[in-house]
Amino acid sequence: MLRILGRPTHACDGISRRDLLSVGGLSLFGLGLPQWLAARETSAIQPGSAKSVILLNLFGGPPHMDMFDLKPHAPANVRGEFQPIDTALPGVQICELLPQTAQIMDRMTLIRTYSHKYNSHNPYNVLTGFDGGQDRENYFAKRTDHPGMGAICQYLDIGADDVPRYVMMPAFPGYSQSLRRAGPYGGYLGSQYDPLFTVCDPTFDRKSTGDYDPSIALGAPVLPSLGALPDISVNRLDRRRTLLQQVDDSTAAIDNTRKTRTMNHFQSKVFELLTSSKTRGAFDLSQETDDTRDQYGRNLWGSSILIARRLVEAGSTFITVHWEAKGANHWDLHGNNFKMCRSHLPQLDQLTATLILDLEQRGLLDSTLVVIMGEMGRSPRINAQAGRDHWPQCGFALLAGGGVRRGMVLGATDAQAAYPTERPVSAGDMAATIYQLLGIDPNLTVDNLNGRPIHIHHGGVPVWEIIG
Description:
Elements: H1 17-20, H2 38-41, E1 52-57, H3 76-79, E2 84-86, E3 93-95, H4 99-102, E4 108-114, H5 124-128, H6 135-138, H7 149-155, E5 166-169, E6 196-197, E7 203-204, E8 217-218, H8 224-227, H9 234-238, H10 240-247, H11 258-275, H12 277-282, H13 290-296, H14 300-314, E9 318-322, H15 337-361, E10 368-373, E11 377-378, E12 390-391, E13 395-400, E14 408-410, E15 412-413, E16 420-422, H16 427-438, E17 445-447, E18 453-455
Parallel strand pairs: 1-9, 1-10, 4-14, 5-6, 5-9
Antiparallel strand pairs: 2-3, 4-13, 7-8, 10-13, 11-12, 15-16, 17-18
Helix pairs in contact: 14-15
């Protein structure tokens, strides 16, 4: 949690300055400084087909051979328990537990060959495009990390300035919020480019007995100012002008410097965004009809995706939903793979089809890129615990809208869905594709902490075949 430096004195209303500036999301709204806006002048940004991105990260590694690349003729210890069904895309079959998604496959592009060598349990490769690290070095977020794609968008000052541009729901990636996984942060660009992390306190439809006994998470993410900070009420936050006056002395010694003027503006903007009716309105699901709530699913993931759609309508640029919570709400399926899938896949199926059709009906699909993927796939062979193990060599990505071709399957795998046989797509390729669709030059470089220019594509190139 960010703490803006200052003396640990107390404001006149009893709120400590330290507590006041500890809002989980206070570092999490990008404000383009003049030197960073120079990227516009060098044509790093052009109008893109996508104005917004909704990225659903299936944390842990979803089993591609049980979802979008079934091998019904493989041996029993490979093919698993699920049957393939036809889709709206002739000749393409997917899992029987995804019937609603099957009906809209003609609106989507499926990449069957997301492939890399980075075997680590964090969303680092998904959110940054970098897959050259090691688990022991990259498991926990640190200042030297590469920035997430949403952080790059903030760095380039892309999007509306009256709503949070980069949002991650339902909370920060971390094993039930006990650690902070690498991936979503500003990294060496600075914490001011971190996302707004919402918070959640879900309930569950039943008590889970372990890591592979799934229960359905219920509830919805909320803004940190509303749920995470009991000492700062909404009314107190609404008195932002008074509060800002109370923290002015923390930077008085260097008040005339550009850095200080920028920070004062940053603080003011943060409070303005957190307390604006537009931001709060995007998170107010009571404005949706019961029918819409039911269509998305009244679970944590359906609610998060519905809020993501509302954020798109409000003007947010990059929204990530990270599927990881207690009650075995994850996709790291080392055990009980098929029972876990029977719980997870119907939820995923419902929210995927509803989101795509809802965006289409509202005229937002062409300008909103939807990406559904995980950091890896799963091993072809079923283990002794009826699970599948880590397998970064092959996974999937499902995309729709935002300039992506409709009704396309890219790549093919061998008889056991173990390795790509044609057109592997790297993490860098995926990032470069998303940047390209957003109108960001994937060849752009940003300096790391040593002043070394780093390409934001991390060696990848856009997957031109899927760009319409």
